[in-house]
Hints:
Layout: H1 3-17, E1 21-33, E2 36-39, E3 44-46, H2 48-53, E4 59-66, H3 70-80, H4 84-115, E5 119-120, H5 136-142, E6 151-152, E7 158-159, E8 163-171, H6 175-179
Antiparallel strand pairs: 1-2, 1-4, 2-3, 4-8, 5-8, 6-7
Amino acid sequence: YSISSLIDEEIDEAYKLIQPSCCYGLTDIKQVRQPQITLESGVTITSRVLSEVLGQCHEIAIFLVTIGQNLENRVARLMDGEQMLRATVLDAVGSEATEKTACYLEERVEELATANSAQITPRCSPGYWDWDITQQRVLLQAMDSCPLMLTLTEECFMVPVKSVSGIIGLGQFEKQRGKHSPCSSCPKMDCQSRR
């Protein structure tokens, strides 16, 4: 029995289990003053790096992305049955599907920005750079009208696990400004996600 056959089987299984969903809401930026960004909706985001990235933006898209609970339930059952290789493969496929769903949403926001002669910043989620993961609460509260069934643990991890929250800035600035990596301004030199 080959590894490649097992991988193909779990990819086929993933297609049956993944339920990609996403939503976003636009809100104007009222003020950017290091290290805080105050939105017209009353939401306050605290991050020195994001304050720099969003300095020339006029609004942000707050977004939520998920592929649902089914895949991670299947991963848990496989692990309980000590089928670790299958569980690992299926979990990896789920992570990739979550990322692809987030990319899809980012493309839609970029299309909207382009139609309004604006550009976008890289998307960012709580827990990256110097943006504290507890600010997931702020984003979920801001998106309380979103139909996605997402919750947070006490530690502010998302449930379902294969979910992402975050923001994308929109503004009229030079294109390289929007694509500039905030990692160059972030003090976390040992970060695994550093670009």
